[in-house]
C-alpha cells in the first residue's frame, strides 16, 4: 500500500469521525435548543490569489444554506450550526475553481449585528482532485419581521439577512474571497 492510498483512507476515516462527532453534538444540544434559524444566502464578490492564473477573472459567487441552533436561556444570542453550499471561487482560462462546501459555524450577536466564524471543507467539482479546507468570517444584520396572528399561536418570524463575508481557502496556494451576501430566513 503506497502513501496515496494511506492518505485517502485517512481522509475517509477523518470524515467519518468528525461527522459522527458533529452528529452527536447536534442531537445532544438540539434537545436544549430554544430557537432554530434557517437561512438561504447568495453572495458575490472579489477574489485574490497567491499564485498566477492565466486569464483570471477575479469574481466569486456562492449559494448556501445555514441551519443555526440557539440554546435556551442565552440572552446574548450565541449559537452554532452547519452550512452547506456551492462556491465558484474564480474563473480562469484553465477552468473554474468550483467547490461544494460544508462547514461548522458559530454565531454571536453584539451591538445589533451578528458575527459568524467557522471552518469550511471544500469538495472540488470537475476535473480537479483537491479538497482543501478554509476559514470564514462574516459580519451582518438580520432584519426581522413577523406574519400571522400572535393570539392564535400561528405567528412566523421571517428575516432578511445582509452580510459582509471573508473566506480563506487553502488550496494549492491561498485563495481569499470577499463577498456581499444577501438572503432570507425563518425562525422556528
CATH architecture of the largest domain: Beta Barrel
**CATH fold label of the largest domain:** Porin
Helix percent band: 10-25%
CATH class of the largest domain: Mainly Beta
How many independent structural domains? Answer: 2
Task: Report mean pLDDT, rounded to a whole number.
Answer: 77
The end-to-end distance, rounded to whole angstroms, is 50 Å
**Reading side by side through the largest sheet, how are the strands ordered?**
1-2-3-4-5-6-7-8
Low-confidence stretches: none
Number of strands: 8
By secondary-structure content and strand pairing, the structural class works out as mainly beta
The fraction of residues assigned to DSSP E strands is over 45%
Query: How many distinct helices?
Result: 1
Q: What is the secondary structure topology, with strand pairs?
A:
Elements: H1 3-30, E1 33-49, E2 59-71, E3 79-92, E4 95-110, E5 113-124, E6 133-147, E7 156-170, E8 174-187
Antiparallel strand pairs: 1-2, 1-8, 2-3, 3-4, 4-5, 5-6, 6-7, 7-8
Please, could you describe this protein's structure?
Helix content is 15%, strand content 62%. An eight-stranded antiparallel barrel has the order 1-2-3-4-5-6-7-8. It folds into two domains: 1-31; 34-187, Porin, CATH 2.40.160.20. It has one helix and eight strands, in the order αββββββββ. It is mainly beta and 188 residues long.
In a nutshell, what does this entry contain?
With 188 residues, the protein is mainly beta.
Amino acid at each position: 500500500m503506497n502513501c496515496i492510498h494511506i492518505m485517502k483512507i485517512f481522509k475517509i476515516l477523518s470524515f467519518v469521525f468528525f461527522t459522527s462527532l458533529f452528529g452527536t453534538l447536534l442531537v445532544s444540544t438540539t434537545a436544549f435548543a430554544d430557537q432554530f434559524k434557517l437561512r438561504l444566502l447568495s453572495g458575490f464578490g472579489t477574489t485574490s490569489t497567491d499564485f498566477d492564473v492565466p486569464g483570471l477573472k477575479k469574481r466569486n459567487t456562492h449559494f448556501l444554506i445555514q441551519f443555526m441552533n440557539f440554546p435556551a436561556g442565552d440572552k446574548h444570542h450565541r449559537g452554532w450550526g452547519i452550512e452547506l453550499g456551492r462556491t465558484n471561487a474564480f474563473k480562469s482560462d484553465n477552468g473554474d475553481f468550483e467547490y461544494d462546501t460544508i462547514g461548522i459555524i458559530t454565531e454571536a450577536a453584539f451591538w445589533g449585528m451578528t458575527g459568524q466564524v467557522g471552518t469550511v471543507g471544500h469538495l472540488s467539482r470537475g476535473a480537479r482532485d483537491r479538497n482543501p479546507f478554509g476559514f470564514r468570517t462574516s459580519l451582518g444584520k438580520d432584519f426581522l419581521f413577523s406574519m400571522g396572528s400572535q393570539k392564535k399561536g400561528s405567528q412566523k418570524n421571517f428575516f432578511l439577512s445582509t452580510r459582509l463575508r471573508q473566506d480563506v481557502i487553502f488550496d494549492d496556494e491561498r485563495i481569499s474571497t470577499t463577498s456581499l451576501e444577501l438572503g432570507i430566513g425563518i425562525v422556528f
